[in-house]
Amino acid sequence: MSTNWQNYNSAPAYDELISEHGVPRLESKNLVQYLATMDQQELAARQAAAEVAIKEMGITFTVYNQEEGGTIDRSWPFDIIPRIIAKSEWERVEAGLKQRVHALNLFIDDLYHASHIVKDGVFPAEILADSVNFRPQCIGISPPLGIWAHICGSDLIRDADGTFYVLEDNLRVPSGVSYMLENRLVTKRVFPELFEDYAPLPVDDYPSQLFDTLAALSPHKSEHPVVVVLTPGIYNSAYFEHSYLAQQMGCELVEGRDLVVGEDDVVYMRTVRGLQRVDVIYRRIDDMFMDPEAFRPDSLLGVKGLMRSWKAGKVALANAPGAGVADDKVVYAFVPQIIKYYLDQDPIIPNVPTFRCLYQDERDHVLANLDKLVVKPANESGGYGMLMGPYSTKAERERFAEQIQQNPRNYIGQPTLQLSTVPTLVQGLIEPRHVDLRPFILSGDRRQVTTGGLTRVALRKGSLVVNSSQGGGSKDTWIVDVSSKT
Amino acid sequence: MLSRVAENIYWMARHIERAENTARLIKVNTFLLLDLPKRIAPGWVPLLIITGAEELFHKRYKDTGERQVTKFLIADSDNPGAILPSLLAARENCRTIRDIVPREVWELINELYLQSRDNLNQGLTKNGRHSYLNRVITSSQTLAGLLAGTMNHDVDYHFMCIGRSLERADMTSRIIDVRSADMLPDQTGESKAYDNIQWMGILKSLTAYQMYRRSMQVRIHRNPVLRFLFQSQEFPRSVLHCIQEVENRVKQIGTDRATLQVLEHIKINLLDVDIKNLDHASLHTYVDNLQLDLIRLHNFLAQAYFLPVEE
User: Fold this and answer.
1) Distance CA A321, CA A464 (A)
2) Domain total for chain A?
3) B96·A271 Cβ contact <8 A
4) Scanning every residue of chain B, which has its alpha carbon at the shortest distance from the alpha carbon of A62?
5) Same structural domain, A130 and A272
């Protein structure tokens, strides 16, 4: 039995491929028609082929496994039906992301220097004072090009009317880009015939753009700056990505113990032929673990003296230490003002309306509406420590109310948005499932945005949780130029 | 090439080789015991001595029976020479260098470990043991072929070969040491009659029997067997062959003087020794010194090429 789109109903959510009454959107017409020609068996066979490809290509993510007393690699969960976004629409999103990251970098640089934004009363000093991601060690430092967040992953969602919102910005060590790249390869293997009708814009120039961004940071002019990827090691959930990006960029993948900072404050890697100078480090280790000399002294993952070397301008770090100060759910609530302050522009992509418990009136609103709102602590990621109001129990709400009263600065409340949906294969049948989108923005001598990004999908019916550690999957994301199509 | 990567690939090869050697030892001992009368059969203790794990074993088990010793040598996670822990260690080593070795290498090691773990119960039974051990041996050999045939023969590959050959030289010398000691105390009567079978056992535990026949063309006797196992230029598990392999690889990596000197020293000692003048006691001392040299060799390699040990 093949899909009858008449019966496909995502209401009240906005569906990315199908408008009301089973009519495909302009850019997805060919895909939808094509899918309608396939019966349940054929679809299942394609899904199975994708899973085989993923296993063969070794696309995995790591989860901790209690039973084995260690970590295991799981195959990356992937849904074969791509998500399509029209190029015209994407261009606006792209401009909005560049604007946002531009302002955020100015904001971070300001915070570690004169703090004009605080002095001008636009950004409250007490938030900065409480921020767990503000690094006093970074005050007064001017990284190359004035850029702190070279790689940013922003999470976008679409509400019921199809408007894009920014849900959060990840400015520390955002991951997922390798899966965006691999998803496209898998789709090419599974649906080669679709590419006859479509020419989704390519995504695979990311590794070279990343390399160029990193190489441009090199502290000294040399034709071949030595760039390395610094990983916490195989037990990190994103180790696959670290290894993948190093391979794709042709760089060494190093651990903390591979590096040493010399008396000359230069960073070296230990090779079988002796010490070799390192110019740029794409570090995938959290600030606090990066350098036991400057941060947590018990860190075994870091490199002693790394901060010293960075401060002396002998090595470039991406992202810069301290960039995470803008990666905070309370700071997030101020981004529209931040954009206005530094760029004198209105945000192109809006924030999700956010109530800041720091302020009495907004806090009262949150406390009065705990059953309707999503409440998030300032500095958790991966969907941990959140209260999903509509799905919460009374006891949970009471616990959160108490936590908010105790530490109001640490909490924000947001309305539960209707995440958009995309047709997704569920046991051979096509059903709507909620998605988000994480594009990656590179900032160096210029700003570049990935073509699309990583679409994550909540595979459980009705679920809004898209994290792969909590049962989420992913989809290929196509940016399609409808106007130029013949 | 990063020092950590060199170290990992070196240890990956050592661990795989160790698992293979342990599998060979258990297999041959099983057959040897079937051939010898109970009165003179050496039992399972020699395997503990060969693998240097006697003390550890006695802390954990009372009885040195077949069941306990084979379990200890196949599965005991406290025994670093046991098969399963060695395979696990090799797998962990390989995981950190997945971007360096051909993908099939990782897949094979991963599969070998998972299979060996999942079929452990079979490996611990008398009749399932043989095929269990054979899979370990065959997979290790497949791996060697895969690496030789699909990996760049670059510095990474040299370190892999060094690890494998060093581990192999170590095991060959241990087997000679322990097994030849078994046979000497009582050289009269019944046990002498079985000498031949025991020397054959030694050869077989190194898969050296057939090659010995082809190469030496003499009957199986102590001195030519020892000569073959120490000094053969042709047999890939002889100590000399392994050391020469290490030397060739080391020379392709660099010119670390201390390493090359100790290699030269080992080689001279191997070539100069007159086997027939070695009685039981001096053979034991000779092997002891060889083992110490191998440890020095490892230490020099580590000093020259691997990550410094954490203070």
Assistant:
1) 32
2) 2
3) no
4) B95
5) yes
